[in-house]
Every structure is written in C-alpha cells, then in structure tokens.
Amino acid sequence: AQQLVRDRPGTPFCDAGIVLPSRSPVRAFNGTEITGHHCISDGRRYDIIILPALIGDIDPILDQQKTIAWIRKQHAGGTCICSVCASAFLVAAAGLIDGRRATTHWALADEFRKKFPKVLLKPEKMIVDEGDIISAGGVTAYLDLCLHIVNRFGSRELASSISRMLLID
Question: How many Å apart are CA 137 and CA 123, to the nearest integer?
C-alpha cells in the first residue's frame, strides 16, 4: 500500500514497523533473527497492531504476561488489534474477545476452545472483523488480513490495486 501511494500527494498510508517485547532481537520459528524498530516498553500507542502467526507450543507464549498486558493496554487506548493464526491465543489471553467472535487455524480449534471457552470461535472463517479486533485464520490468511486492513483503513481502490498487483483474489 505504501509503495502504491508513494507517488500520490497527501499522507502516506502507514508507517509500519516491528515492535518487540524487549530491545533484544528475537528468533523466528525458522531461526531468522529479527530486529525491531521499537520495544513494548517505549510507551508508544499504535493505531493498528498485527500479531504474527505463531508456530509450535503455545503455552510458553501465553506465559509472556508483559506482552499480553501490553496488548490489553494498547487496545484500551483505541488500537485495533489484529491476529494471524495462533496469535489469536494472545488476544484471548488478554481477555479481549470473551463473548466475541474470532478465528484461528482450524487445527488449533480444539485447543483454543479448551483454553478460551468464552470466545465464539469460528475456525471456518478466513477473517473475522469485530471492529476493534480482527482475526485471520491461518498463516496465508495474513494476505487476506492485509487487504482487509487496507480496504477498511485506506480505500477500496487501494485494496483493489494491491490485489491486482499481487494476484490475490
């Protein structure tokens, strides 16, 4: 979206960056080291936060209370929280979707329901938009989520241009 609007006058679509739990780099599930632009202790508030897909055992991730508290605080400040695949577990752990609809990967549905029975889980859905919380079902649903965000917070025309450029239905 940023690339497509770069040559147009006006405000850029977004200023994207990576926010990490600490100033130390993290390792992705494939071993790649990721360095952040910001840290959750910086005190910044964001308009939209996209929590990435999580691979592997979810329990150690749910033990990260500092990160979960940060998600809760960002949401309370008006941030739209978006999850991809298993990161819906973090949103649920923050208590943000009790009694609300959400989605996650279908293979995680049973575990999710056991841990968070108050959430109205819809694993058959690719995207669930509850206004201030948006969830995407699986890792590749990230593309659908991004188009949805651009359509909602940018414009239908911009989302359509990205869809055509990237060959996403």
Answer: 7
Q: What is the tens place of the pLDDT at every residue in 34-54?
A: 999 999 999 999 999 999 998
Buried b (16+ CB within 10 A) or exposed e, 62-86: beeeebbebbbebbeeebbbbbbbb
What tokens appear for 82 in the block?
Answer: 């978006």
Helix (H) or strand (E) holding 133: strand 133-136
Q: What is the pLDDT of residue 130?
A: 98
Q: How far apart are CA 28 and CA 34, in angstroms?
A: 7
Neighbouring C-beta atoms of residue 103, cutoff 10 Å: 26
**Which residue did the predictor score with more confidence, 71 or 164?**
71
On whether the CB atoms of residues 127 and 134 are closer than 8 A, the answer is: yes
State the Cα–Cα distance between residues 2 and 147, nearest whole angstrom.
Answer: 13
CA neighbor of 108 nearest in space, from 64, 49, 55: 55
Region class of 29: left (phi > 0), else alpha (psi between -120 and 50), else beta:
alpha
Q: C-alpha dihedral over 91, 153, 2, 67, to 10 degrees?
A: -20
Q: For 97-152, how does the pLDDT look when each residue is reduced to its tens digit (9 = 90+)?
A: 999 999 999 999 999 999 999 999 999 999 999 999 999 998 889 999 999 999 99
